[in-house]
Amino acid sequence: MALIESGDLAAVISLVPMASYGEESLAKNLTDPSWTALRAMRHEQVVEHFAKQISVVPLRFGTIYLEAAGVEDMLGENNQRLVEIVERLRFREEWGVNVYSDRTVLMSTIISVSPRLKELSERAAKASPGESYLLQKKIDTLKSDEARVEVNRAISELEAILQAESVDARRLRVLKVESTEHGELKAKFAFLIERSRFQQFQAAAEKMATDLKVSGLSLELTGPWPAYNFAGD
Amino acid sequence: MSSPFDQITIDGESNFEESDISLLETLDHVLNRGLVIAGEITISVADIDLIFIGLNVLVSSVEKANEVLRERQRSHLTSESGT
Predict the structure, then answer these.
(1) Where exactly are the structural domains of chain B?
(2) What is the pLDDT of residues A103-113, one digit of tens each?
(3) Between chain A's N and C termini, which has fewer beta carbons within 10 Å?
(4) What does the longest C-alpha to C-alpha distance in chain A come to?
(5) Which residue has the higher pLDDT, B60 or A120?
């Protein structure tokens, strides 16, 4: 590993063999998950090592320069932009919040969670047997829709509350159709947090986790990450 | 697999409990995000998406990668203690 310096910036680089990292071989190697995972993890460990001590702009795995001079030119050409990012990220960390939905739990609580179903169910309780039957059927057909409404409502509420506790926030794409022990992944967020404010953020996230439990939603907090999602412009 | 960074799982009951950082979560960050600076060879955004989807689909392969990582760490330790 080595440093290439240009002005007040330095790039952390390592030399890699062209045989594996040349344009064609890289594209081919990247299709092998074991090959990619191992090297991407190594990349991450290096970024984390530096991110713990100084403000860094995390680059993605797979940015290859054919010559050291290319890196120096890049630092020079992008100096202003990179310095701005370094300053913006100083004393800040990225935290990820993943939202999982357990549908079985939500379907069992939706009548008390959804104001609309709650109202219908109260009416059904007081109604004549015939009317009660019809109301009950209506409730059953609405349950699915209301569950979706509740998940979206809860996610919006979570986003608004945690956004207020952070410097910046991003809603990320959910690429994976992932079912885990927590349920199905419904949303992913990245938050940029002032290190000194993390406890407040954590407290707000914990409160939301408690509040959303009744809706079958659980939260996963991951981090601190190098600010991958906030390194762009 | 050990990461210097902690991952914390919250559930309403036990609040924060630490768990192992998932490999996919890390790959999600490293491969899918981060600043792209046009290097002489840079993986294009589209390619990364494909790779990442591939990684997600091939969970068993990722499990294998985990094993590789563990083996790597072990053999690394072995070679270190051997010298």
Answers:
(1) 22-82
(2) 999 999 999 89
(3) C
(4) 84
(5) A120
pTM (two decimals): 0.81
ipTM here = 0.75
B65: nearest CB among A37, A44, A219: A37
Hey, are the CB atoms on A38 and B72 less than 8 Å from each other? Answer: yes
Q: How far is Cα A201 from Cα A191, in angstroms, rounded to an integer?
A: 10
Quote the DSSP letter at residue B35: B
In order of their start, the domains of chain A are 2-90 (no CATH), 93-113+148-230 (3.30.70.100)
Which of A39, A48, A222 is the mutation pick for testing B, counting most B CBs within 10 A?
A: A222
Residue A61 CA to residue A39 CA, distance in Å, equals 8
